[in-house]
Automatic annotation (TrEMBL):
It comes from Raoultibacter massiliensis. The keyword Repeat applies. It is found in: Cell envelope. Signal peptide: none annotated. Residues 4-34 form the 4Fe-4S ferredoxin-type domain. This is Oxidoreductase. The lineage of its organism: Bacteria, Bacillati, Actinomycetota, Coriobacteriia, Eggerthellales. Gene3D superfamilies: 3.30.70.20.
Amino acid sequence: MNEYALLIDYKYCTGCHVCEVSCRKEHDIPLDEWGIKLNEMGPVKMKDKWLWDYVPVPSDLCDLCEDRVAAGKKPACVHHCLAQCMELVPVEELSAKMAEHGNKVTCFIP
């Protein structure tokens, strides 16, 4: 599955936890483990602005929903993301996609 990466544009993440829930349901993951975990960073005051970010972070249990992708579907977290801030991207397109999204983007390659 190394031909794909999960691109997360976390400036749009609202912290709804739907990625965690959909992953847990898709893979029947127990409550004390995560396929993807939403981390909250903030609030932090920088100059006159308050910053508060949510960053979904895939764990080593994440296989980018290999079975779903093989069936032509999106990974569960991407499909259910309410903010549509996650995208499955072919690795060869990753740098161009990251450049499009700017500085609040991260990627995951299992």
